[in-house]
Every structure is written in C-alpha cells, then in structure tokens.
C-alpha cells in the first residue's frame, strides 16, 4: 500500500516539474486569493454585525426613536444572513461526511 502512495507522490512531483513548477508538491495549490477560512470568518463577522444592527434597531424602536419599517428591514436582513450561515454550515458538514466515507 505504501509503495502505491510513494509512486503516486513521485508521479505528482514529476507532473509538477513538467508544468514548470505551477503545482505545489506539498499538496496545497498556490494561493490565488483569500483562503476558505478567511472567507468563512468574514462571512461570520458580517452576519454578527448585521445581527447586532438588528438588535440596535429594535432597541431604538422600543425606546421610541425608530421606525417600525426599519426594524422589519433589519430583522429580515439578519434572518437572511443567519439562514446563509446555517446553509453553509450544513454544506460543510455534508462535505466532511462525504469525504470521511471515501475509501483510502
């Protein structure tokens, strides 16, 4: 089994050299943009900001300083943001489960 893995690694290294070093032999592709983790972190931060904004808008309305339409709009945006975060989480979990079922 280990000879198959070694042969595969050597073939990958030869393919990387043939491609002019465009492939990273270490296993990770060359960075072309932000990483997945930074994209998720930014999305979570944005969702948190939207949620806090909705809370502030609701508190302002309860204090008599805001309009109801602003509260509804802020809560709708927060709900959409939360649904997006939950959908991404579900897809990540699904992908992890699928990868964990793959034979090695």
H-E order: HHH
**CA-based gyration radius:** 23 Å
Structural class, please?
A: mainly alpha
Overall outline: elongated
Approximately how much helix is present in the residues? over 70%
Secondary structure: number of strands: 0
Number of helices: 3
| Beta-strand content estimate | under 5%
- How is the quaternary structure best described? single chain
Give the uncertain stretches in residue-range form.
none
Which SSEs are present, and which pair or pack?
Layout: H1 2-18, H2 36-62, H3 68-100
Task: Walk me through the structure.
The chain is an all-alpha fold. The chain has two domains: 1-30; 33-104. It has helices at residues 2-18, 36-62, 68-100. The chain is elongated and about 70 Å long. The N and C termini lie close together (10 Å).
Question: Gist?
Answer:
This protein is mainly α.
Features:
single chain, 104 residues, mainly alpha, 2 domains, 3 helices, 0% strand
């Amino acid at each position: 089994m280990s000879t198959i893995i070694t042969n595969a690694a050597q073939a990958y290294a030869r393919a990387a050299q043939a491609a002019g070093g465009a492939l990273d032999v270490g296993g990770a592709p060359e960075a072309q943009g932000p990483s997945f983790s930074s994209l998720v972190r930014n999305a979570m931060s944005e969702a948190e900001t939207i949620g806090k904004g909705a809370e502030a808008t609701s508190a302002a309305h309860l204090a008599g300083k805001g309009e109801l339409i602003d509260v509804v709009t802020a809560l709708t945006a927060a709900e959409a943001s939360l649904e997006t975060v939950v959908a991404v989480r579900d897809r990540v979990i699904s992908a992890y489960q699928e990868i964990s079922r793959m034979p090695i």
